[in-house]
Amino acid sequence: MNDQLERLNRLPLRSNLRGLTPYGAPQLDVPILLNVNENTHGVPADVRAAITAAVSEAAMGLNRYPDREFTELRKALADYLGHGLDETNIWAANGSNEVLQQILQAFGGPGRTALGFPPTYSMYPLLASGTDTTYIKGEREEGYELSAESAARQVRELKPGIVFLCSPNNPTGTGLGLDVVEAVYEAGNESQTIVIVDEAYHEFAHDGTPSALTLLPGRERLIVSRTMSKAFALAGARLGYMAAAPEVADALRLVRLPYHLSAITQATALAALQHREALMADVEDIKKQRDRIVSELTRMGLSPAASDSNYVFFGGLENPHQVWQDLLDAGVLIRDVGIPGHLRVTAGTETETTAFLTSLESILANRP
Ligand code: PMP
């Protein structure tokens, strides 16, 4: 055991945090960063200019606390989502991680459970530990599929307080049919299960893919979580949000810290929402690069999963960690998610994607 861990263990840490390691994808200084599903296309110039102007304006009022209800931002987010939603349906926080944490604070906690279906977003169990919620690992079928029937059966049997459905799923990239969401919601009627559909990557889905937002009317325990970190290229600004029945937003008001969304964050997010055309054009290019990765990896004899997100999960590697290291040595950082035979890569710009594909092909050709 290293010194630091020993010192940590001497503290009176809560027992459900003992032995955990913090979320931590490596942050390395490498020319091509394709490891944490960021938007690789940067913030377009007109969006940057709008943000700068809005932040400068907000700076004049920084002596005052920000609008605790961030009403203008909630209106703009409702307008962006459509589906007949208004500001009473919307809640936001510093990244969707914080929204998810607030949901666990309000609906999870000691004596309560949250069900996820690994492999899925690695923060779900950490958010559960942090709120003293017991995390239950559900099961997927062959090829990491999750059918409506299997998911509903597990919810009926386990009666969790909360279910996480990640669609498109991280790390596999594959979306869930709305039949799964409907079946899980119905299966949770008796246990009053809160159903979270994490749609962090929804904007990258193939055209015509429906959102779980369409299922919100009449389902007061359904929450659809979104973020501006991906399609809106704002991972650094930290703005995540959810849409649900107004009473869900009221529940999250009970656990949020006062003034949790800074005036700078609100101004930044509003400016990006008002100038989203260029951002959405970049999303289209990212989808093109994602589809190109899928077809090129297939040509190389690997097995990429169908992806509705801005990254591709691919198998068929004998020694994924070595390939990850070789790519890193070539200046390309991707993600080893610890799943045998697999790696995950974020779709880059055309140049970055070409560099990844070329490096990978030569690494695979030089392996005996
Ligand atoms: N959900 C999923 C599935 C994610 O992959 C991520 C980030 N990688 C998040 C939520 C959280 O994103 P943020 O806090 O930046 O909104």
Helix and strand layout, with pairings?
Blueprint: H1 3-10, E1 32-33, H2 45-59, H3 71-81, E2 90-93, H4 96-107, E3 113-116, H5 123-130, E4 134-137, H6 148-158, E5 162-166, H7 178-187, E6 194-198, E7 222-227, E8 240-243, H8 246-253, H9 263-274, H10 277-299, E9 303-304, E10 311-315, H11 320-329, E11 332-333, E12 343-346, H12 350-365
Parallel strand pairs: 1-11, 3-4, 3-5, 5-6, 6-7
Antiparallel strand pairs: 2-8, 7-8, 9-10, 10-12
Helix pairs in contact: 2-9, 3-9, 4-5, 6-7
This protein binds 4'-deoxy-4'-aminopyridoxal-5'-phosphate.
- Unreliable parts: none
Count of all domains = 2
Overall geometric form: globular
**Over the alpha carbons, how many angstroms does the gyration radius reach?**
21 Å
Report what the structure shows:
This protein is of the alpha/beta class and 368 residues long. The protein has two domains: 107 residues, Aspartate Aminotransferase, domain 1 (Alpha-Beta Complex), CATH 3.90.1150.10; 230 residues, Type I PLP-dependent aspartate aminotransferase-like (Major domain) (Aspartate Aminotransferase, domain 2). 39% of the residues lie in helices and 13% in strands. The strands form three sheets. A seven-stranded mixed sheet has the order 2-8-7-6-5-3-4, with helices on both faces. The protein is globular, with a radius of gyration of 21 Å. The model has no long low-confidence stretch (mean pLDDT 96). 4'-deoxy-4'-aminopyridoxal-5'-phosphate binds next to helix 4.
